[in-house]
Amino acid sequence: MSLKNNVFIISTFGLVLGLGSCTDLEEKFQGDLTANQIGTTTSANTAALLTGVYNSVREPFQNNSQLNALCEMTTDAMMGPTRGPDWDDNGTWRQLHQHRWDGNHIRIINTFNNMSGGVFAATDMLRFNPTPQQAAEARFIRAFCMFWLLDLYDQVPYREPGESVIQAAKVRKGLDALNYIISEVTTIQAALPDGPAGLANKDAARVFLMKLYLNKGAYANRATPTFAAEDMNKVISLADEIINSNKYQFTANYYDNFAPNNTTIGKENIWTQENVGGVSPNANLRNRWVTFLHPNQNPNGNNGWAMLPTFYDKYEATDKRLGTAYKSPGGLANPGNRINTGFLIGQQYNLTTDAPLKDRPGNNLIFSKDVKIIETGSNLELPGIRPIKYPIDYANDGSRLVDNDYVYFRLSDVLLMKAEAILRGGTATNTGTYGNSALSLVNAIRTHTSRGASALTSVNLDILLDERGRELYIENWRRQDLIRFGKFLQPFYEKNYTSDPKYLLFPIPIQQMAVNENYVQNAGY
To answer: Does the fold of domain 225-274+407-487 match that of domain 3-192+506-515?
Structure first.
């Protein structure tokens, strides 16, 4: 069997075997995954295996129906409306937005399995004598998947390298899992490369540790988080290390960070998953525009999810993050200079001829702000603002293997986390050109020409939460932010009630409960 096939096995079988299972078919696959198949360990082999580790996490992060759906559709930012017979999917999307899911929810299951697969793929790679840097990168990916399992489910499956996959995975929970992840990232940081952004790197470790310390109080008690000054000062210190590196700067256009050529022009990006157009394994980053666009737009879309009007209204009218006529390499002519990136609202146009578009029944294709979670009637294709965060890669859209690198960490998030840590009791510092207060940090982002928003006169936690939403929309942070700020359970658009506290966590999938006695189902499920 070729090395290429072994990489595929390690990265793919991890998706289904990371937790332990009891079917004959899966046991056969487990038995096939042996060191003998890899052959003599060489630097080329371990490099290919590390590529397999990176590839193993493309699907849960880049496909917007997994982590993105769980972290954004469950919040005040986005929902997946049912449009007549379209987008019903047995209530899958409505259940997420209205906090009515259970342990059989397919998106909860897929996210759990694929994140656990990333843990498995990285752990398995470590038994093939990687170099210190290769081991550090694999352990970083593993820790990041563990972080999301902790964040979503509060339980993290794990094995030691070489440990039999026939035995059920052990499980860390809560602060035990958090402390392990912090220890891992701290230990491996020095062995990570300095860059580029497409690799797990030293600055990515710093941002990761900021996330861990900032959320520590929430992981200890999601219902009523508390924040220790010691942890907040660690957040501030890590932010200052990144700022003092002078490696990152605001881009000329906010959306450059997400563009098809963001490998070179995304100057704010600290850690990304590099995609090479027409080459990289398909992880459905293309869904970041296809899900939202109408079938009569180019490229033709699925007319699906929408941003909530109450979220849209958080922006000033002049805020450039609302949208732009973005010029992508190989993009359409757009003679009318129509907004094609950001929030699509109002009449939509053919971006080649500038002719107004119509929907399939013949109505003018006018995306309206207001949208119901169940749409009916002759204009059901029209309601809802459509967010296009990643400028469309027209050059590679047909192959579905797009060039836009997926963005994990950015400079603006570092500044916003530092501002939050100051507001939560950390000691302010004056680092770089961003000032020494939460207000100056926030305004450094807002007033940059790439954003074009007005300077705030004051900032508190509520205002900061809004700014995190405006800056980081649909980047997977909204659910986590709302929990940390104590607002996740509150009523919001098309969910007019306070949710049961059990929804602060997702359930362990029923199938995993059946095969691994080390899991304890989260309360209320």
So the answer is: yes
Domain over 3-192+506-515 is classified CATH 1.25.40.390:
yes
Which pTM does this prediction carry? 0.93
From the number of C-beta atoms within 10 Å of its C-beta (0-12, 13-18, 19+), residue 370 rates as exposed
* pLDDT category of residue 282 using cuts at 50, 70 and 90: confident
DSSP conformation letters of 224-289? S----HHHHHHHHHHHHHHHHTT-----SSGGGGGSTTHHHH-TTEEEEE---TTTSPP--TTHHH
Inter-residue contact 83 to 375 (CB < 8 Å): yes
- Domain residue spans in the chain? 3-192+506-515, 225-274+407-487, 277-404
In the predicted structure, residue 26 carries a pLDDT above the cut 60: no
List own/partner pairs for 136-140 with CB under 8 A and 24 or more apart: 136/188, 136/189, 136/191, 136/192, 136/200, 137/50, 137/53, 137/192, 137/193, 137/199, 137/200, 138/50, 138/53, 139/184, 139/188, 140/185, 140/188, 140/192, 140/200, 140/204, 140/205, 140/208
Does residue 385 sit in helix, strand or coil? strand
Centroid of chain to Cα 463: 23
- What are 313-356's pLDDT values in tens digits? 999 999 999 999 999 989 999 999 999 999 999 999 999 999 99
**Could you report the per-residue pLDDT of 212-264, keeping only the tens digit for each?**
999 999 999 999 999 999 999 999 999 999 999 999 999 999 999 999 999 99
Record: fold of 225-274+407-487: 1.25.40
